[in-house]
Amino acid sequence: MTADDSGAGPREADIAPRGTGTAPREGDSAPAGGPARAAGAPERAGGDRTGAADGTVNGAGAGAGGVSGAGGAGGDTDDDTIAIRLEQLILGADRRYTPFQAARSAGVSMELASRFWRAMGFADIGQVKALTEADVLALRRLAGLVEAGLLSEAMAVQVARSTGQTTARLADWQIDSFLEGLTEPQDSGLTRTEITYPLVELLLPELEEFLVYVWRRQLAAATGRVVQAQDDAEMVDRRLAVGFADLVGFTRLTRRLEEEELGELVEAFETTAADLVAAHGGRLIKTLGDEVLFAADDAGTAAEIGLRLIETMANDETMPELRVGIAFGTVTTRMGDVFGTTVNLASRLTSIAPKDTVLVDEAFAEELGRTGEAPVSEADAKAAAAAVADGGPLPEYRFALQPMWQRPVRGLGVVEPWLLSRRG
Questions:
Q1: Of the four, 61, 303, 359, 422, which is 20 to 30 A from 216 by CA?
Q2: pLDDT surpassing 90 at residue 357
């Protein structure tokens, strides 16, 4: 099995779980690693584990100690044995199979097993005993979905890839940020390594249940959006409002701020943006450090999100200025991401937007006009003013639009941006 080149492939030394690979056992030819417990696998997939004070684990003898790259030095270090114990705790099973043995036990070809493994983002592990019963079960289930005709082979690989990419980022965040923060105080006199095992032991079942809960909630929401689509084509190629929000002068900030300060600023920006997008009915597609990408089913929701982002950040003295660009049109969705000309246009609008403003494209402006949330033309505005002058009701416009000068945009030709604001 070789490393995946899909863009989310593991680092060269990564064999899941990251950082817990062991030195080769006697007769093995490469460092061993094992993937995180596969979705749907039993909570404890077999094999005993011990919490013995001496750090030993059933099935892990003197020849199996040592973290990746540290084997062969003769004897285990404390960190090595804790790494082995952590892997057993998380996986809930002993390493029993080589990749070939796992594929044979699952009843799938080595070629298909390798494709699934690569898609999940795991590096080449050679033919060492690095896999568990959970890995066999995961292979068997994916292959079973293909055999039953519920998924094509290509779709099964895509399921493995999307799940691997998403959970890899989640696991990195939890270890690098969450666990690191919890183990920061050293008042107990214990080292961080000594604190990690009991902490993971306590958190693992809670985090696992919470992960499944959130996934079910997100799956229900996504299914609802698909069911409400007007036709089959709209399930993949949909008309959405797509927006980018970008911190101004971020490159200069990276030269001026300390790394810790910069990290705190980015985290605060991402957290604020994620909360605002979710609270007002949008979906956060991804974060890119100094930029977030969001989407909404209708232009009015996206307009509210864009303006709220500007208003909220402007009231925070610790934050730099923000600029937002939003476009409306057909978008292709793949693996939770969005693609297409509409996305590219939103990105370009963001790059030309003045500080603390929201620029939208002509299609977005027209959609706001069609839904009665903003007057698009001077005629609309004059008609509304005349109606009010004659004693009629004030139109319930939420937003105002001001056409800007047409300008060429790289790769997209000439566009006419509109400045979006709240209706006074």
A1: 303
A2: yes
The answer to whether the beta carbons of residues 418 and 299 sit under 8 Å apart is: no
CA separation for the pair 193, 198 (Å, rounded): 10
Chain centroid to CA 82: how far? Answer: 29
* Per-state percent for the chain, helix, strand, coil, to nearest 5: 45, 15, 40
Rounded-to-integer distance, Cα 164 and Cα 53, Å:
34
- For residues 135-168, one letter each, b for 16 or more C-beta atoms within 10 angstroms of the residue's C-beta and e for the rest, the string is bbbbbbebbebbeeeebeeeebbbbbbbbbbebb
Summarize pLDDT for 90-141 with one digit per residue, the tens.
888 888 899 999 999 999 999 899 889 888 888 778 888 889 999 999 999 9
Identify which of 244, 262, 266, 251 has the alpha carbon closest to the alpha carbon of residue 310: 244
Locate 142 and state its tokens. 């994916």
Please compute, for residue 98, the number of CA atoms within 13 A of its CA located in the half-sphere on the CB side.
12
Rounded CA gap, 26 and 117, in Å?
Answer: 25
CA angle 43, 46, 48 (to 5 degrees): 105
Structure tokens given for 69:
């790259």
Query: In this structure, are residues 157 and 119 in contact, taking their beta carbons and an 8 Å threshold?
Result: yes
Question: How many angstroms separate the CA atoms of 160 and 1, rounded?
Answer: 15
Alpha-carbon radius of gyration of the chain: 26
The per-residue pLDDT for 304 is 96
Instruction: Say if residue 187 is exposed, middle or buried (CB neighbours under 10 Å; 0-12, 13-18, 19+).
Output: exposed
- Specify the residue for token string 């604001």: 421
The candidate with the shortest Cα–Cα distance to 129, out of 150, 146, 147, 105, is: 105
Task: Please give the model's pTM, rounded to 2 decimal places.
Answer: 0.59
Phi and psi at residue 24, to the nearest 5°:
-60, 140
Secondary element (H or E) of residue 117:
helix 110-119
Backbone φ and ψ for 155, nearest 5 degrees, come out as -70, -40
d(CA 221, CA 295) in angstroms, rounded, equals: 14
Average pLDDT of the chain to the nearest whole number: 76
Contact by Cβ (8 Å): 401, 374: yes
User: Parallel, antiparallel, or unpaired: how do β-strands 322-334 and 358-360 relate?
Assistant: parallel
The angle formed by the CA atoms of residues 338, 339 and 344, to the nearest 5 degrees, is 115
SS3 311: helix
Looking at the DSSP bridge assignments, the partners of residue 264 are none
Beta strands in 175-236 (DSSP E): none
